[in-house]
Every structure is written in structure tokens, then in C-alpha cells.
From TrEMBL, chain B:
Family per record: Belongs to the bacterial solute-binding protein 1 family.
InterPro entries registered for this protein in UniProt: SBP
Transmembrane segments: none
Signal sequence, renumbered to the chain: 1-24
Keywords from the named record: Periplasm, Signal, Transport
Keyword Transport: yes
Name used for this protein in its record: Inositol-phosphate transport system substrate-binding protein
UniProtKB/TrEMBL annotation, chain C:
PANTHER family, alphabetized: MALTOSE TRANSPORT SYSTEM PERMEASE-RELATED, MALTOSE_MALTODEXTRIN TRANSPORT SYSTEM PERMEASE PROTEIN MALG
Keyword Nucleotide-binding: no
Family per record: Belongs to the binding-protein-dependent transport system permease family. MalFG subfamily.
CDD domains, sorted: TM_PBP2
Subcellular location: Cell membrane
Pfam family for this entry, one: BPD_transp_1
Chief localisation class: membrane
Originating species: Pseudorhizobium tarimense
Protein name per UniProt: Maltose/maltodextrin transport system permease protein MalG
Domain ABC transmembrane type-1: start-end pairs: 67-260
This protein's record includes keyword Transport: yes
Key words of the record: Cell membrane, Membrane, Sugar transport, Transmembrane, Transmembrane helix, Transport
């Protein structure tokens, strides 16, 4: 009965499926969708409405869209007649006030809201609250200007009602242009390809990943091999020490680096005492900024590599090492011919795993150099985050940021598939032995 | 009785109950206020709303109503986090009732439907809004509507260290005449570089501290664009403008400053702390900042004798095409679409009361900002403050503001990015300007006039 | 095995490359109880005043509420991660089902792919289910982020349990669920414990997600609290105070680490079982 055993399996898996679909799969899909939109703060995420504004009409007119229609739409007017009074009555405007308006202003029209408001303010039965007065004013308005219509149909209807002579295609054009929400586009990608900035970012990212990775592997290797030779006590002291960066919360860890390298910090004070150039090393020069970025990330990675390598080293048969020593092998020869070959797979694993996590990591850079000085230490992931969610000028470009994230996702997935082949994924799977 | 009529009468009963309940018991309203870029010296941005709430409660009590207003304030010291929070909160319908932000957000936020036009809720013909400066109301308007009420204004002056100027041969009279020379265009940005260099050569300031501009992105950098004759909007079409010539000259100015050695190539991104430390402790030659910085230097950096230690002026012109200028970047109280119309009406009333000259002056003087209304000149606290009066009289008349266009953010981002790459010499000035141009072309197309 | 080699050159080199860590962490502790003159790193006096934030909320704001929130935050994440990883890991290790192969491959790929790059998508999902700006939302996202790792680790531990135990259980007529709960779970206790430790340390240090997904919520975790203290614009800014708060924040992790170092080592090298 495979069906039943399938069900058991799915039942066990369902909570994981639920969370993973919700917080991994869905966000990936959404990111892919957003990548093809011009979504930003001004368009909003959840959709827009249709608003005909003065600026919009101005630019439509400049583009040569039926000037008569555009002009007719740009006139705001406030008319006191039977129709508008009836409308105000239906909307619940105070009856006494309305009677007074009818009596004093009937037949009058105003082109400016302010002027009409002032008239109303002079009336005896005007509402006490200014908001109620404004609400009453709205009832007399004959204009679509600045009204937010929820749907295109409503907007179209209102425009045609106001300017009955307008041809349907002109109305459509105006309504379409008045949409404030996002639209589909592929321009995010063409922009990325055409911008020289992109290639600089790619260069930065490759540099960052390559150098940090080398640092991680070499330091990790060095630590693993040296602690392997040390007496147990010393070895465990060093491995404990090197694990600290990995377990320290990132906020504290990055500020400790600031304390270490900023003006007035430890290195600064020491350099001053020694007469060496003292400045804010994290932000004051490009080489020092990169060095710090690489160390901040490299120290975290090195601990990870060290543990993996140490684990693999423990698996080396001790007799083999003794034998080589008896044969008079130097320490270097021992490392070169016995230890390193043994570490081939762990090294490959660290390289592949760290490439992926470095590609998408930006937290440490964000909290230390923040991509500076200038934008010299900005990497792809950080830029994607800044574009989509973190902007001083406040215009968050979700669409462009999503396009950047999507490219990162594609690169990551491609690399992962490559790695899965490399590490012979199929061997990880053993068939279940109980099937019923 | 059918089911539907049963529901109807139940609803009727509920409505009746509810309305009597409102009459009988106290009315509790919670108004949330979020403010960005707000540190300890700026706490009156939220405090003023709290004071207004108290006044409104008292007024209600006199009318015989029981009104309880809880003001929930939240502040961010930075802008990026704040704008991110506001934007995301708006998307999830949890935006605060009142937002205190820079006026340049009006364009973007009004388009995305995050704001209620405040003109629909308040009376600009009545006290205290009728005494607000008309140019600040213009700054709070976009596309023909008034969206916000100015909360503060400021000027962003240049500062000179008096002692260091003296060290390179200025007399007291020369120093006092400096602002006028700046204003007339006789003293330019390049004269400033020369002076900064002289100070460094005279060893009164350390190398790289002769000229200390703002260490991070900000409105301030647009002032240099204006100094070289740049403009923001085309008067005729109302479109945004990018003046490539002015941009080139502005970038070139900072590159020249780096070449002269008066500012390091890796200057941008320096910490505010180091900047404050240098300028407040007289370790810098010439720098620019905002009127509000004086308050910070006094509160936190131990500056005692501002007028004795520091001279101030407009931003000098860069060349004959430009002019001496300063940018005012008013923060505005904005009304979000969150909450009911009733809440918004109440929030608008609170903002109106908070704009009373006496209340607004508390903020202005405490934080070193300038008045938003003409009546504040009569408030003793304001009138007796030498700095605010001086800045109002000498700097504010020359102030311009950034445009509220929703697309301006894109231009700004591109401008600063280009500045960074030219400044750090990652690319040449011409390349930087070209990439700004292509960036703007790619994202905004013909919405911007590039010339 | 080091009979014919001297140790001290190695120790010396190790010490040199470890200097940044040694200095940073040594001063993290020293600075919290000392004062030093400006422009110098050498302390010249002993004081406990940097720790006054523990009892005096005016120093940096109440520290105990964020601490409680962080404990709650961490505990919920640990529970979710353990619960889901232990069932899913079992399914992937032992149960027969369609697409098992692909699911395992996908989990591996996800494992290497931090969710933070997809944060806009995550925001939308949270907003859609109404969990934006809530503790629950951040907990779910953070737990989701750890799941691929947790599932993978647990699968590894299940793989080492002998099939005989399970066979025996099934032959006695127990359901697969009972077999799992009564017979198999006790076998992977060390794995569960290690995963719990790992998840706790990871969750305790989380900073980005609360900051972006709950920026204005009325709860505050210690990472955010610490970041506020580290803000140079705040009037209470003081590096030694920051370090004291930082040390206070990190102490639980250091304690866990010191006590359960060996078990943690296993899992930090995790994901390599295959």
C-alpha cells in the first residue's frame, strides 16, 4: 500500500512543508514576480488607484493628448444648484446650513475651493468643525481632480460624465495614465545590464567572496593543522577562542570591530603611540576598509572551517602519522603528503558552502563599513537590500531590488546544483527499508 | 419575524446602545506619531503633539465632554530606518496617524495614497495656521494641494573657525565682513579652498581638516549644485531638471578639494561623532552644517562661545553662474490615511494646536531650528535667542527648498552616488556625470529635462 | 605524536593571528569594570558603575523587559525548530514518499541560501497573513530560516539509528507515529539537544529580522536594545556602558557555549554528515 505510507511520510513532513512554502518558496516566487515590475514606494506594493492630478494633465497636454478634453478636466468648479444641494442633503449635511447655502449662494459657481470655503465660513449656520465644512464643500465639487478612484471603470465613468464629448480612446488614455500603482516591465534587467555601476558591483562582489574565502580556508586550515599538533589543553583553548566570533551576536561583534579600528579605538591609539598613521581604519581608506570587511567575515568563517577540518583530521589513523615520523618525515612533509590529501573533501565543502553564504551575506558589511568609503566596499547583496529597503531619500525601489535579489537567487541555485553533483548527492540517499 | 428583520432590529438596538454609550462614557482616542531624524534635542516634535492633546482635553472638558487622548510617540534617530518603517507599515495598514518627515517625501507618499491632504482637515485662514510663512506652505504642497503643515525650518550655513582665519591673516573686521562677501559672490567656494589650504599650511589645522563638509548623504550637497548655477525644476513645464554643467562643476569642486589635500578622498562615510568632535572643538577650518547643529554642539560637545569661536555665512557661490545660497529643509506634520476619518480630524486638530507660535518656539529654540510662522518673532523665547534671530534674518531669505516631486528621490540617489564615485576617484568626473545621466534616463526617461 | 617537534613556535604564531580576537574580547570584559583616561586603552581605575543599567532604568532604559522578550523569542524558535525538524528529518530519513529525493535536494539548496535576500517577499507574506510587526511573525520567519539546517541535521542523526529498532516496533504492531515517538526519538536525543543549543544561540543573536519586520512593534529584543545603546546620537552613549550591556547580552551564550562545547562543536560542523 504505497499510498498509505506516502500519507504517513507527508503527514510527518507537513509542518515543515507549511513553513518552508510560506517563508521560502512564496518569497522566492514573489521576488521573481516583483523583479518584472516597476514597484517602488510611490507605486505601493498592494496596488494603486486612479488619480487625475494637475501635474498629470499638464504632462498629458504636453504630449499632445486632446487639449480640449484635458483643459475641461483641469477646471475645478464648485457649483451651487439643485443637483448639488440634493447631493449634499443625501450626504447628511446639516439641513439648516444647507438651507442657508441655498438661500444665499444658489446659482453661484466658484473655480477655487478656497474662495467657496470662505463664502461658507461667513454663513451663520456653518458647522463648528472645519472638517465638516470641508466635507460639505466636497459635495458641491464638479471635478475629477485629485479624486482617488478605486477602479478604472469608476474613473472612466467620472471622466465621461464630466466631459461627455470626450472620445472613448482619449478617456482610456487619460485613465490609464492616471494609474498610480505598479506596472509590468523588464526595464529592471535592461537597466542592470546597461549600467556601469553593475559591473563595478559584480567586481566588488567577486573580490569580496574570493578573498574572504581564501582567508577562511587558509586560516581555518592553519588553525586545524596547528591545533592538531598541540597538546589537548592548548588546542581546545585556541579552538574555543576562535569560535567566539561565530557565536557572538552580530550587533556586539560588529561594534567590537568598530571599537578596535575606529578613531580613538584600540589600533588607532596603539598606532598613535607608535607614531604610525592613525585614522578611522574602517572608513578612512579603501585598503584598510576592505581588510576589515574581510577580517570581520573571515574570522566567522575561519571558525567554521577549523571545526570541519579538525573533525576530518581526527579520522586520520594515528599509526600512519607515527610511521611517517619514524621514517624521519619533517612536519611539512607530513602535512603535505598525509594531512592535506585527507582534507580534500572538507576543503571543497567549505569552499562551496562559504561561497553561497558569502554571496548572500551583507549584514556584517552593512553594520561595519556600510559599503563605504564611497561605495568601494558595497557588494551585490548589500546593494540589493539598500535598493529595496534602505534608502536615505526614502524612495524604496522594490522592483529593482527584487530583480537584483532574483539574480542572486539564480546564481545561488545554479551553484548549489553544481555542488550537489560534485558531492554525489545520490549517495546521500538510502532507500527506506520499511515499506508497507 | 424574518431573519433579516431580526438582524435589522438587533443592529438598530446595538446602534442605539452604542450611541448612548458614547454620550455617557469617556471617549478614548489613541493618536500615534512617528518622527524620523529625531534625537534628544528634537523631542518637541512629539512633545508638542502631547501638549496639544492636553489642551484639547481641557477644551473638551470645558465644553462638558470627556475626551481622553493618548499620544503614542515613536522616534527614529536616522532617516533610512524611519522611512522603511513608515513605508512598510503603510503597506500593512498600520501606519501612524501623524508622520513627521522631510517635505520631499510628500510627492512619493501622496502618490502612493499614504497621505490625506491636510488642507481638507484644517483651516489655513484661521489662527494659528494663518501666520505660517507662505513659502513654507508652498514647500508643504504638491500638485496644487497642501499636504502637510511645516514643523520646523532651518538654514544650512557655512561655518568658519575665527581663530584659524586669524591665523592666516584675517583681521576681526575681515571676519565680520566675510558673510557679506560671500553673499555678494566675491568670496567663492574656491576662495574657501585656498583659505583651508592656508590653514593647513600654517599648521593650525591638521591635514584633511581644512574643509569638513557633511560626512554623509544629505540635502546639503544640493547646495553646491545651486552654487554652480544648477536648478531643480523647469519653471515653464514644471519638470525636474538635471543641469549636467553644474553637476560637473560641483563634482570637480570636491575633486579639486581632494587634490588640494584639504579633504580626504575617503571622507564620505566618516562618523558624525568625529565630525562633531572636530568642528566643535575648533580642530577644523571651514565646514558646513545646519543651524540645529549649534544646539547639539552646546548640548553634547561642550561648545560655550559659539559666536566668539565661529563665524557663519551662506554657502558661497561656485562661479559666476551660481549664487550664494542655503537650503531649508522643513520637516512637516503629515496626516496618514490610517485610522478613521474621525481620528484624522482629531490628529489634524492636534497638529494645528502644536503649530501655535509658543509651542513651536519650544522646538525651534531647543533644537536650533527656525520659526515656521511670523508670529514667533514676538515670542520672547524666540526673540531673545541670538542664533535663531540671526539665522532668520540673514540666512532664511536666501533659502531654497528641494522639489517635492516623487521622482526627485531617484535623481538624488544618482547624484550622491556619482558624487561618491568622483570623490573617492573610483571614476572620473565626466564618467560620474555620465552614469548619473544614464541612470536617470533609464529610470525616468523624459520626465526629467537633462541639459 | 608530537615527540620530535617543538610546540612553542606554533603557539606563538597562533597567538599572533589570534590577537584581534584576544584583544577585543579581553577588553570587552575589562572595559565593563574599569575606567580609562581619554586617548588611552589602558584602564586606570576600577568601577562597577557601567553595570548600573541592571538596576537603574534611567541609564539606558529598562533592560529586563527586552531580556524577557528575548528569552520568549528564543524559546519559541527553539520549540518550533525542534518540533518541525524532528518530524521532517524522520520523514526524509525513514519514510517512503513521493519526491523525497527532490525534497531533500531542495532542503540542501535552501540550507545554503539565507532568506534575508528575499526579505521583501517575506514582508509581503507576513503582511498578507497579518503578522507584520508582530513577535509571532518574526519568530516564524526566523524558525523558517533555520529549518533547512535543522532538518538536515536531524536527518543525519536519524540515519545513524539502526533499522532493527524500528523493525521490531513495527512488527509488534505499533503505528509509525508511535514507533517514532516511543522508540526512535529517544535515540536521537543528543541530536535534538545539539540542535536546540544551536537554535538558541542563533535566535539569541538575531538582529536583522526584528529590525526590518517589526520596526515599530511594542516589543524589543536585546539585539535591538543594544543597537539603541550603541547609537552615538543618544545622550546616554558611552562605550563602556555599551560593552557592559553587550556582555550582559552575550553572557548566556557564552555560558551555554562553555558548558556544552563538545556537543556544539558537532553541530557547528554540521551539514557535513553526508
Amino acid at each position: 500500500m504505497p499510498a498509505r505510507s506516502y500519507l504517513t511520510g507527508l503527514a510527518f513532513l507537513s509542518p515543515a512543508l507549511f513553513v518552508l512554502i510560506g517563508f521560502f518558496f512564496l518569497p522566492v516566487v514573489l521576488t521573481a514576480v516583483f523583479a518584472f515590475t516597476n514597484m517602488s514606494t510611490s507605486t505601493g506594493i498592494s496596488g494603486g488607484s486612479y488619480v487625475i492630478t494637475g501635474n498629470l494633465l499638464g504632462s498629458l497636454k504636453a504630449q499632445g493628448v486632446a487639449p480640449t478634453v484635458v483643459d475641461a478636466l483641469s477646471q475645478a468648479s464648485f457649483v451651487v444648484d439643485e443637483q448639488s444641494i440634493a447631493k449634499a442633503q443625501a450626504a447628511g449635511t446639516d439641513a439648516q446650513f444647507l438651507a442657508e447655502i441655498e438661500q444665499q449662494l444658489s446659482g453661484k459657481a466658484f473655480s477655487e475651493e478656497r474662495a467657496f470655503e470662505r463664502e461658507l465660513k461667513s454663513l451663520r449656520y456653518r458647522p463648528r468643525s472645519i472638517r465638516d465644512l470641508k466635507l460639505a464643500v466636497d459635495q458641491f465639487e464638479l471635478s475629477v481632480l485629485n479624486t482617488r478612484f478605486a477602479s478604472a471603470a469608476e474613473a472612466r465613468e467620472a471622466v465621461s460624465e464630466l466631459v461627455p464629448s470626450a472620445p472613448a480612446d482619449v478617456v482610456d488614455e487619460i485613465v490609464d495614465a492616471s494609474y498610480t500603482g505598479w506596472r509590468w516591465t523588464t526595464s529592471n534587467f535592461t537597466r542592470l545590464v546597461s549600467s556601469s555601476d553593475t559591473w563595478r558591483l559584480v567586481g566588488n562582489t567577486i573580490f569580496y567572496v574570493a578573498v574572504t574565502l581564501s582567508f577562511t580556508v587558509f586560516v581555518g586550515l592553519f588553525l586545524a593543522v596547528t591545533t592538531f599538533y598541540l597538546p589537548a589543553g592548548a588546542a581546545s583553548a585556541f579552538s574555543m577562542l576562535w569560535l567566539l566570533p561565530r557565536i557572538t551576536p552580530v550587533v556586539l561583534y560588529t561594534v567590537m570591530w568598530k571599537w578596535f579600528t575606529w578613531e580613538g579605538g584600540f589600533v588607532y591609539t596603539a598606532a598613535q603611540a607608535l607614531g604610525l598613521p592613525a585614522f578611522n581604519y574602517m572608513k578612512g581608506s579603501v585598503p584598510t576598509a576592505w581588510t576589515i570587511v574581510i577580517m570581520v567575515n573571515g574570522f566567522i568563517g575561519a571558525a567554521f572551517a577549523m571545526i570541519l577540518f579538525s573533525g576530518a583530521l581526527k579520522a586520520i589513523p594515528v599509526q600512519q602519522l607515527w610511521a611517517s615520523e619514524a621514517d624521519g618525515a619533517s612536519r611539512w612533509q607530513q602535512i603535505r603528503f598525509i594531512i592535506l590529501p585527507h582534507l580534500r573533501w572538507p576543503i571543497l565543502f567549505v569552499v562551496s558552502y562559504q561561497t553561497l553564504s558569502l554571496l548572500s551575506s551583507y549584514q556584517e558589511i552593512w553594520l561595519t563599513t556600510n559599503g563605504g568609503p564611497g561605495r568601494t566596499t558595497t557588494v551585490w547583496a548589500l546593494e540589493s537590500f539598500n535598493t529595496a529597503l534602505n534608502s536615505y531619500t526614502g524612495n524604496l525601489q522594490y522592483g529593482l531590488g527584487a530583480a537584483m535579489a532574483l539574480i542572486l537567487v539564480i546564481v545561488g541555485v545554479a551553484l548549489s546544483i553544481l555542488y550537489l553533483r560534485l558531492f554525489r548527492f545520490d549517495e546521500l540517499l538510502s532507500r527506506p527499508k520499511i515499506e508497507f | 419575524m424574518t431573519v433579516s428583520s431580526l438582524i435589522k432590529s438587533a443592529a438598530l438596538a446595538a446602534t442605539l446602545l452604542a450611541s448612548t454609550a458614547v454620550l455617557a462614557s469617556a471617549k478614548d482616542v489613541t493618536i500615534s506619531v512617528w518622527a524620523g531624524g529625531t534625537g534628544p534635542t528634537n523631542d518637541y516634535r512629539v512633545e508638542a503633539i502631547k501638549m496639544a492633546a492636553e489642551i484639547l482635553e481641557r477644551e473638551a472638558k470645558i465644553r462638558g465632554e470627556d475626551l481622553n487622548i493618548t499620544v503614542e510617540g515613536q522616534t527614529w534617530t536616522t532617516w533610512d530606518d524611519f522611512k522603511q518603517a513608515v513605508t512598510l507599515a503603510a503597506e500593512s495598514n498600520t501606519a501612524p496617524n501623524i508622520i513627521v518627515s522631510g517635505h520631499e517625501d510628500i510627492g512619493t507618499w501622496s502618490q502612493s495614497g499614504l497621505l490625506r491632504p491636510i488642507e481638507d482637515y484644517v483651516d489655513f485662514d484661521a489662527w494659528p495656521l494663518n501666520q505660517l510663512y507662505p513659502n513654507l506652505i508652498d514647500v508643504s504642497s504638491f500638485d496644487g494641494r497642501i499636504w502637510g503643515i511645516p514643523q520646523d525650518a532651518e538654514a544650512r550655513p557655512f561655518f568658519f573657525s575665527r581663530s584659524h582665519l586669524k591665523a592666516i591673516g584675517y583681521s576681526d573686521a575681515d571676519i565680520d565682513a566675510l558673510p557679506a562677501k560671500v553673499e555678494s559672490g566675491e568670496y567663492t567656494l574656491y576662495s574657501l579652498l585656498d583659505d583651508a589650504k592656508k590653514m593647513q599650511d600654517a599648521k593650525v589645522v591638521e591635514p584633511g581638516k581644512g574643509f569638513m563638509p557633511r560626512p554623509s548623504n544629505g540635502t546639503d550637497y544640493w547646495q553646491f549644485y545651486l552654487s554652480f548655477g544648477g536648478e531643480f525644476t523647469d519653471a515653464e513645464s514644471g519638470k525636474l531638471i538635471l543641469d549636467k554643467q553644474a553637476l560637473t562643476e560641483m563634482y570637480q569642486f570636491f575633486v579639486d578639494a581632494v587634490e588640494k589635500g584639504v579633504v580626504p578622498a575617503t571622507y564620505l562615510g566618516m562618523t558624525w561623532d568625529s565630525w562633531h568632535d572636530a568642528v566643535a572643538h575648533d580642530k577644523a577650518g571651514i565646514w558646513h552644517g545646519g543651524t540645529w547643529h549649534k544646539a547639539e554642539w552646546e548640548a553634547k560637545w561642550g561648545l560655550n562661545d559659539f559666536f566668539g569661536q565661529i563665524q557663519y555665512s551662506l554657502i558661497p557661490a561656485g562661479n559666476e553662474k551660481g549664487r550664494a545660497n542655503t537650503i531649508t529643509h522643513p520637516l512637516v506634520y503629515l496626516l496618514s490615511t490610517a485610522g478613521t476619518d474621525e481620528d484624522a480630524t482629531l490628529a489634524a486638530e492636534l497638529i494645528t494646536i502644536a503649530s501655535e507660535p509658543r509651542i513651536n518656539t519650544l522646538h525651534a529654540v531647543k533644537s536650533g531650528h527656525l520659526a515656521v510662522g511670523s508670529a514667533q518673532a514676538d515670542i520672547p523665547l524666540y526673540a531673545n535667542d541670538r542664533w535663531t534671530t540671526a539665522a532668520t534674518e540673514q540666512l532664511l531669505p536666501h533659502a531654497t527648498a528641494l522639489p517635492n516631486d516623487p521622482d526627485f528621490g531617484v535623481i538624488w540617489k544618482a547624484m550622491y552616488r556619482g558624487l561618491e564615485s568622483a570623490w573617492t576617484k573610483t571614476s572620473s568626473v565626466a564618467d560620474a556625470v555620465n552614469s548619473v545621466e544614464s541612470e536617470i534616463n533609464a529610470s525616468l526617461g523624459n520626465k526629467v529635462v537633462i541639459r | 605524536m608530537t615527540r620530535n617537534f617543538a610546540n612553542w613556535p606554533i603557539v606563538l604564531v597562533l597567538l599572533i593571528i589570534s590577537t584581534p580576537i584576544i584583544i577585543m574580547y579581553a577588553f570587552l570584559v575589562i572595559d565593563t569594570v574599569t575606567t580609562s583616561p581619554p586617548g588611552s586603552a589602558i584602564p586606570n581605575g576600577f568601577t562597577l558603575s557601567h553595570w548600573r543599567f541592571l538596576i537603574d532604568p534611567t541609564a539606558t532604559g529598562d533592560v529586563w523587559r527586552p531580556t524577557l522578550t528575548t528569552i520568549l523569542f528564543t524559546a519559541s524558535i527553539v520549540v518550533i525548530v525542534l518540533g518541525i525538524s524532528s518530524t521532517a528529518g524522520y520523514a526524509l530519513s525513514r519514510l517512503n514518499m513521493p519526491f523525497r529525493r527532490y525534497f531533500l535536494a531542495v532542503v540542501l539548496v535552501m540550507h545554503a541560501f539565507p532568506l534575508v535576500t528575499l526579505i521583501i517577499g517575506v514582508f509581503l507574506v507576513l503582511q498578507f497573513v497579518g503578522l507584520y510587526n508582530t513577535l509571532t511573525g518574526v519568530v516564524l520567519v526566523k524558525a523558517g530560516l533555520m529549518l533547512p539546517f535543522g532538518i538536515w541535521i536531524m536527518k543525519g542523526f536519524y540515519d545513524t539509528v539502526p533499522w532493527e529498532i524500528e523493525m521490531a516496533g513495527v512488527q509488534d504492531g505499533a503505528s509509525r507515529f508511535t514507533v517514532w515517538r516511543k522508540l526512535i526519538l529517544p535515540q536521537v536525543k543528543p541530536g535534538l539537544f545539539a540542535l536546540a543549543l544551536f537554535a538558541a544561540i542563533d535566535a539569541w543573536g538575531e538582529y536583522m529580522l526584528p529590525r526590518i519586520l517589526a520596526p515599530s512593534a511594542d516589543f524589543e529584543v536585546l539585539s535591538i536594545y543594544l543597537n539603541t545603546v550603541s547609537d552615538p546620537d543618544s545622550t546616554t552613549y558611552n562605550f563602556n556602558l555599551f560593552k557592559s550591556v553587550g556582555l550582559f547580552y552575550t553572557l548566556p551564550i557564552l555560558a551555554l557555549y562553555a558548558i556544552f562545547r563538545d556537543r556544539l562543536m558537532n553541530i557547528f560542523g554540521g551539514g557535513t554528515k553526508g
